[in-house]
Amino acid sequence: MKICIxxxxxxxxxxxxxxxxxxxxxxxxxxxNKVTSKxxxxxxxxxxxVDIQELITNADLYLLTVSDDAIEKVSKSIxxxxxxxxxxxxxxxxxxxxxxxxxxxHYGSFYxxxxxxxxxxxxxxxIPMCIHGSDxxxxxxxxxxxxxxxxxxxxxxxxxxxEIHLSAVLACNFVTHLIAESEVILADAGVDKSIxxxxxxxTIFKTISQGASxxxxxxxRRGDNKVIKSHLEMLSDRPAIQKLYKQLSSxxxxxxxxx
Amino acid sequence: MKICIxxxxxxxxxxxxxxxxxxxxxxxxxxxNKVTSKxxxxxxxxxxxVDIQELITNADLYLLTVSDDAIEKVSKSIxxxxxxxxxxxxxxxxxxxxxxxxxxxHYGSFYxxxxxxxxxxxxxxxIPMCIHGSDxxxxxxxxxxxxxxxxxxxxxxxxxxxEIHLSAVLACNFVTHLIAESEVILADAGVDKSIxxxxxxxTIFKTISQGASxxxxxxxRRGDNKVIKSHLEMLSDRPAIQKLYKQLSSxxxxxxxxx
Lengths: 259, 259
Description:
Two copies of one chain form a homodimer.
Chain A: E1 2-6, H1 10-21, E2 25-30, H2 34-43, E3 47-49, E4 61-64, H3 71-76, E5 87-90, E6 106-112, E7 129-133, H4 136-147, E8 153-155, H5 158-188, H6 197-210, H7 212-215, H8 219-222, H9 225-234, H10 239-258
Parallel strand pairs in A: 1-2, 1-4, 2-3, 4-5, 5-6, 7-8
Antiparallel strand pairs in A: 6-7
């Protein structure tokens, strides 16, 4: 497939490489940022353009990897209308495909459920690809495209994709943050954060293999109020984290009482 | 070493096996629960006892794996005083070794920084073992003992161990809970929780290799208020989780503004 990538962030960096590796032709990478557009373009053997007026008119797919807020604006700045056979899609979790409806007939989403950083190597093969299209034509085409880079391709509509994205924020962004706060506590205690690595790994292995509810341990799960009280006292000079500790402990209790 | 284990929960289950495998002699496993004491005793080729009066008087070490709240009470119910060469230790994160001070001269902690479930196989070798003793004698003896089951043995005093335990609650128990809540969201959306596995794994690999602060992504980190607002609306019928979402997002912002 002949593809133009719009955007040059973490998603473009990884998805461009995966599409190239799968044999697709990445023709152009567009971004107003010259440095990053060049870097991503080099990575997927494409041309870098910084002016959207230079976008070629005959790509099969225009893939928007820009930030959620920019999707609609960038798509509307494309200086031509897409033809009957052309497609446009975005890679965002929480944006309806309808923001692309004015650009042409076939629009959709091509959402990889993963956290991307440029410095991390990633194999796309196991990444769930969530596909949604404005019609059967694009849904089929995007499904075939997704299958060339991943073995886990799913039809997920706008509303469900948003729920998945919300769950991903909890299970990825908020998890990372709790570990960041635990690293602050360790640093203040003069302990290297590496001490937590085996615990964190086992926590995740257990959570994935047993399900999180079954894998839950700790003072809140056991109702060990003495430990909870002692931890809250230790956090007395960090009121924000103390509040989080209280709320998460009470939330654990609520979830397990419910079950 | 000749060891009596008091308690028959998850920690006894794993630590007993590890000590046996390292060549130690687990003589008895004491617990008022006949079923679990028998199960743990069988696992580490020991005798199960349900009456503390039957505790042998000549073990080198009495290892308390009971719940935090029970440590002091169980230690005080030992029907004899420990001799000059005998030792007693607990495996708890947040309990001072001083609760054991009345039982004999040498008391300490033998704290494995890990989450234990009976149904999970675990290799002890990489588990950080935190050792603290009332004097050099027990500190040295417990260090040698810990080295027979783990390659990561550390001298960690009461206060530091409590900070480590607090950080572990954040990085393990609270992480598990956030994943549990994300699984609830997925279940309500009709999506199998397995869709999150690659994301969760990559989150953790990235967090461990880069440090959590560096690995942070997501709407709160980017300041993407439109997505945050949309997620909060989606959580309007789950006020507790909505409150958590708000607080965690604001906490991410605060931590990154501070750095």
